């Protein structure tokens, strides 16, 4: 028996990286998935010919995004059991004095406002799903500590971590679980060029300080955590931040925070 057989999932930012990894994992485990991304071409390439998935181009920060997603969930999936808020952007690297209002607003529009508005819109459908209802938001280890040059990003991840705790309390009476996953050093389309190869001197030096496991994480690592939270095994886990970082946060004192650490 597949773990998500018969369940319906919405995954944002599904064209690449963590979102695509989660969507593929959920499909493999029997879920019907609505895969959403701004990049329609990459979305089509990633899921070309796959069964169990409906593709939808949406800018999650757009005013009409929540309504469009709910319409698709109802018409294409027949409802919703699992919402994965994965879409996110790192923003521009800038010191406080150089950080623009535009950068701040754009990061919050995608990383916080969209998560709030989409979660709010999906709540009635998730309540109908009852004990199968689930929200998973991909935050970051930056929800647990600070990072130089990325103030808006760090603030946005702290914000969604707080939102999920509040939503967990509000939706718990319907049996809906709400959690965050906090990744680090994950190789995705955004970060692929940020990391030195694992077998290079630079990569080994960084990982020896940053990760107990001394390797980068990949979307499959985060998909496994999402599968646990979405399945029966995570039915009594709510209001939590599940950190998937290879031990990174246990070794923070040895990190150079000016380095570019992986984002979602």
CATH architecture: 3-Layer(aba) Sandwich
| Cα distance spanning the termini | 30 Å
Structural class: alpha/beta
Tally of helical segments: 7
Number of domains: 1
At the fold tier of CATH, the topology name is Rossmann fold
Query: Percent range for helical residues?
Result: 25-40%
Total strands? 7
Mean pLDDT across all residues, rounded? Answer: 92
What does this structure look like?
This protein is of the alpha/beta class and 264 residues long. It has a single domain (8-254), classed as NAD(P)-binding Rossmann-like Domain (Rossmann fold, 3-Layer(aba) Sandwich), CATH 3.40.50.720. Helix content is 39%, strand content 14%. It contains seven helices and seven strands, in the order βαβαβαβαβαβααβ. Strands 3-2-1-4-5-6-7 form a seven-stranded parallel beta sheet, with helices on both faces. Helix 1 crosses helix 7. It is globular, with a radius of gyration of 18 Å. The model is unreliable at 254-264 (pLDDT under 50).
